[in-house]
């Protein structure tokens, strides 16, 4: 798949749905106790690592970034979609949000203590994942924690509309946690924990905790 194409399609799709996505997801964490628990655990691990800036990569409208902030984490958001970033800044004016892509992460080496990518890798094709995990490793401090959330399963689906029927053109990739863990180990991470969420649903979620090796 041509990188420029899928990135451009992802950007346009999320620009189109950003306002509806924010409206539909704003209170989502309130009804997601296991995700809240995972975020609380991540916040604890970040604090134990000494604290410092944490990047929420593919932050969307920033509700998870804001939740981490409420947990005392110095979180900031990065997203491919400039409209998502406009919405995030509107909804959370005291937090920092920047437009950027995880495929070319514009952060200095070892500049963040932690990194979160919650359901933002789901649009990245397999062949791009190792490079992205290389960026994650590069920007994290040695020993810094990483938290990933993604759809569990096999194969990809083309999503042509969403969040109130708006047009989209993105592939949604489902993955097995073992595959994601293997890519992480190859990129220089130690995998520390994983949680399977909604295993009885047709598309479960996985949350995976890893740490940059020294
Ligand atoms: C399903 S939403 C998840 C948003 C948020 N993390 C959440 O948990 O609600 C996927 C987000 O990832 C962003 N995204 C997709 N590909 C990206 C990339 N290459 N770099 C940065 N953000 C990306 C999209 O723009 C979108 O905002």
The helix fraction, in percent, is 25-40%
Stretches where pLDDT falls below 50 for ≥5 residues?
none
Radius of gyration from CA coordinates: 16 Å
Query: Which architecture would the CATH scheme give at its second level?
Result: 3-Layer(aba) Sandwich
Largest sheet: 7 strands, mixed
| CATH secondary-structure class | Alpha Beta
What is the CATH topology classification name?
Answer: Rossmann fold
Bound molecules: S-adenosylmethionine
The total tally of domains equals 1
Element order: H for helix, E for strand: HHEHEHEEHEEEHEE
Strand fraction? 25-35%
Tally of strands = 9
Tell me the CATH superfamily: Vaccinia Virus protein VP39
The rounded distance between the terminal residues' Cα atoms is: 33 Å
- Count, helices: 6
> How would the global form be characterised?
globular
Q: Within the largest sheet, what's the order of strands?
A: 3-2-1-4-5-9-8
Structural class: alpha/beta
Query: Which whole number gives the mean pLDDT?
Result: 97
Descriptive notes:
The protein has a seven-stranded mixed β-sheet with strand order 3-2-1-4-5-9-8, sandwiched between helices. The longest helix is centred in the first third of the chain and has 23 residues. Strand 1, helix 3 and strand 2 form a beta-alpha-beta unit. The chain has one domain: Rossmann fold, CATH 3.40.50. The chain is α/β, with parallel strands linked by helices. The chain is built from six helices and nine strands; from the N terminus they run H-H-E-H-E-H-E-E-H-E-E-E-H-E-E. The N and C termini lie far apart (about 35 Å). It binds S-adenosylmethionine. The site of S-adenosylmethionine (SAM) has 20 residues, from helix 1.
